[in-house]
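Hey, sorry for the delay on this. The queue was backed up all week. Below are the sequences that define the complex (chains, strands and the ligand SMILES where applicable).
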Amino acid sequence: MINISNISYSYDTNQKKPIKALDEINLQFREGEFIALMGHNSSGKTTLARTLNGLIQPQSGEVSIDELSTTNPQDIIPIRRKVGMVFQNPDNQIITTSVEREVAFGLENLGVKTEMMHQVVTAILERFNLTKYRKHPPHLLSGGEKQRLALASVLAMNPKYLVLDEPTSMLDPQGRHDLLNLLAEIKADNAEKKTTDQITIIFITQFPEEALYADRLIVMEKGKVVFDETPEIVFQNIAQLKKIGLEAPVEYEILPLLVEKGFGVEVLDKFR
Ligand SMILES: Nc1ncnc2c1ncn2[C@@H]1O[C@H](COP(=O)(O)OP(=O)(O)O)[C@@H](O)[C@H]1O
Ligand SMILES: [Mg+2]
């Protein structure tokens, strides 16, 4: 479990007042949960994500990952093994000169033996539909393929927690669709595993339809958590979401209007 206990974080800029990015956040992420995180620009989503593997140390409060704590310097390396991160722009994440080397890189760092590494790379490339590009330099891939490669390279290391910071925001519709299908597959695989072996997904997205993939939706506003419910419940609060610059998926926006006009609630089924 990831336990975020009363953390606050301010960026100390040269301006008079520091910018408060996280304001007394308390959250728990349990094994196998698929959590979406939404919020207007600058609400603190990326800052929160970066506290989860110790890239950022909160000025107060504590983040613990299972038995480890990001406040203990000796825990940072094991924490980074457990918490895999995928960022918005795959170009900032891809560091090697071929697709297979990219997937192998993290495994080499973990000291995985050559034979085993070869097996893992082959299996992961196949699963992510990247086998045909095995020897290609990553910069020749499309945006969607690069993001699949970034995700493949992180999953090759078998993380227990997967944090994705707006991974679809730079992709075209096909690329978004492919990435979401991969997340849905991880969720389906979880159902077959023991709780302790399940991957927890923390998925930051600006697209409300994408949040419907999650079991739980956390909404942030000005460094605070303002919703933490199932997406279906959160999206019924249309007016409150609008106030903080967010929208619900189109069916949630339209449904109340249809009901007002005398259609029955069964119209919702037509959208699904
Ligand atoms: N490196 C930084 N230096 C100064 N301020 C920052 C930095 N990164 C983020 N901020 C500020 O912290 C707040 C939260 O930012 P961020 O966590 O990136 O939000 P989000 O990911 O939700 O857009 C914003 O006001 C942003 O301007
Ligand atoms: Mg961000």
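Residues 45-46, 165 surround magnesium ion (ligand 2) (CB under 6 Å).

I'll add it to the shared folder too.

S.
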